Amino acid sequence: MLKRNIVQCLNDYDIPLRYSTTVTRVTGKNRLTGVYVAPVDDKMNPILEKEEYIPCDTLLLSVGLIPENDLLTGTSVEMSRVTSGAVVDEYRQTSVPGIFSAGNVLHVHDLVDNVSEEAFVAGRSAAAFSKGELCVGSTVSVTPSGGVRYALPQKVHQGEGKVKLYFRVDKVYRGRTVVVQSEGEVIKRKKTLVMAPGEMQNIEVDKNLIKGDISIYTEE
Prior knowledge:
mainly beta, Immunoglobulin-like, five-stranded mixed beta sheet
């Protein structure tokens, strides 16, 4: 959950937030009257002996988002098993020239600002492609490891300019440093205070420092 959501939606209204807790039962006949909740163990199994009843008349379920890519069905576009979206380069072009992807069909965003920025990149790139002006050539791969669940784009062209790598971590980290390597050489470090899976992170890299495949990870 985003920090600003916790402050504006929970703290301001004195709503408690419980981590590692699940709903085990609901009560009510024609309308909900309450729920039973219990903490979960490290295997996500509810600890029923610590079950607690909370009276309420509404239960909201947040089940996450999955990119919807029916338009790509039957195409040869390479897909990511982690994001369920297409594999793209920094121009948001997929493995099929002329097909671009951006927004929540590419990967799930938490801020509309990032969606707008990504849409701008894809739109500008599509326009350049239509004019035959889009950069083409060999790419290097971007591989996440060491606390980074996935990174995007998954492919980057070598050359001039900068490229912004977006990524999500696999759990909450405090005081970690994000490291980007190319061919085993560190090309960028970024110290962070807190990183959480629910918040998209990014780090900008000079493309002229890229000598080969890229890896991105966290370290203490």
